[in-house]
Design goal:
Number of strands: 9
Strand order of the largest sheet: 1-9-8-7-5-6
Helix content: 40-55%
Number of domains: 2
Structural class: alpha/beta
Strand content: 5-15%
Radius of gyration: 19 Å
Largest sheet: 6 strands, parallel
CATH topology of the largest domain: Rossmann fold
Shape: globular
C-alpha cells in the first residue's frame, strides 16, 4: 500500500508562491498593501512564537504585519476598544486575536466583535454559521488548512466515516462541519465520549485535535485509514502515537503537517479580504 505523507510544509510553500504574485498585483494595479493585525494579550511564550511565525509569513508574501501587544491584566472592554479601532482602520485587512486570552477576558465576545469582513481567522459566530451552511465565509484557519491538504493530495472523504476528536469552537467543531460539507459521515468525540477506541477503530478518517500528547493509540487505528494530527507538544510529538502512522494510508507529519497550513490559510484569507476590498471600490 502506497503511503501518502500529507506534507503541509510543501503545500504552504506552493500557496505562498501564489500569494506573492497576487500581492504584487494588489500593490501595482491598486496601490494597496494587505495588512494583518495580530493582537497578543499577555506573555504566553507559545502564543508569542505563533504570532512571530505569522508575522514572518506576512513578510515572505509581501503583506504588512501590525503587532499589538496588551498586558496580562487587560480587561474585556479594553480589548474590545482595540478591536473596534482595528475594525475602523481602512489600512487593516485582517484581524487576528491570538488564542488563548487571559481568563478574565470574555473571549467569545471579543472574537465576535471582529468585523466579519476582517475575520480572516474564522473565529466569529457569524463566520462559523455561514461556513456550516456551506456559504461563503473565511473559514477557521486550522480546519480550513486541513481541507486544503486533503484536496491537494486528492483524498476524497465522500461517504467515509470520519471522527473528529476534540470540540473546540476554532478547531473541532468547524472541522466536523467542513468534513460534513465534503460528504463525510462525521462523529465528534470529546472528553466525555464513551468507548472512544471503538469509534476510532471504525473510522476511515481520524482527526486528532484533543490537545493531549500521543493520546490516540496505534492499536485504535484501522489499517488504511487517514490520520490528521492537529496536535503539537514538546518533543515534536502530536496527539497521535507515531506508531499509528505505519498503519495509515495517509497522514500528516508532526511537525510539518497541519501547522504550516494553518498559517498559510490565515495569510491567504488576509489576501482574499484585500482583493475583495479593492474589487468593491
Amino acid at each position: 500500500m502506497e503511503k501518502i505523507i500529507l506534507d503541509g510544509k510543501h503545500l504552504a510553500g506552493v500557496i505562498e508562491t501564489n500569494l506573492k504574485e497576487r500581492v504584487s498585483v494588489l500593490k501595482k494595479e491598486h496601490g494597496f498593501e494587505p495588512v494583518l493585525a495580530t493582537i497578543l494579550v499577555g506573555d504566553d511564550p507559545s502564543s508569542e512564537i505563533y504570532v512571530n511565525m505569522k508575522a514572518n509569513a506576512c513578510g515572505r508574501v509581501g503583506i504588512g504585519s501590525r503587532k499589538i501587544r496588551l498586558p496580562q491584566e487587560t480587561s474585556t472592554d479594553e480589548l474590545l476598544k482595540v478591536i473596534n479601532e482595528l475594525n475602523s482602520d481602512a489600512d487593516v485587512t485582517g484581524i487576528l486575536l491570538q488564542h488563548p486570552v487571559p481568563h478574565q477576558i470574555d473571549e467569545s465576545r471579543c472574537f465576535n466583535a471582529i468585523d466579519i469582513e476582517k475575520d480572516v481567522d474564522g473565529v466569529t459566530a457569524t463566520g462559523f454559521g455561514r461556513m456550516a451552511l456551506n456559504q461563503s465565509a473565511y473559514c477557521s484557519a486550522t480546519p480550513g488548512g486541513i481541507i486544503r491538504l486533503l484536496d491537494y493530495y486528492k483524498i476524497d472523504v465522500t461517504g467515509k466515516r470520519a471522527v473528529v476528536i476534540g470540540r473546540s469552537p476554532i478547531l473541532g467543531k468547524p472541522m466536523a462541519m467542513m468534513l460534513l460539507n465534503k460528504n463525510a459521515t462525521v462523529t465528534i468525540c470529546h472528553s466525555k465520549t464513551r468507548n472512544l477506541s471503538e469509534i476510532v477503530s471504525e473510522s476511515d478518517v481520524v482527526v486528532a485535535a484533543i490537545g493531549k500528547p500521543e493520546f490516540i493509540r496505534a492499536e485504535w487505528i484501522t489499517e488504511g485509514s487517514v490520520i490528521i494530527d492537529a496536535g503539537y507538544h514538546p518533543g515534536k510529538i502530536g496527539d497521535v502515537d507515531k506508531n499509528a502512522f505505519g498503519k495509515a494510508s495517509a497522514y500528516t507529519p508532526v511537525p510539518g503537517g497541519v501547522g504550516p497550513m494553518t498559517i498559510a490559510t490565515l495569510i491567504e484569507q488576509t489576501v482574499q479580504a484585500a482583493e475583495k476590498k479593492v474589487n468593491q471600490k
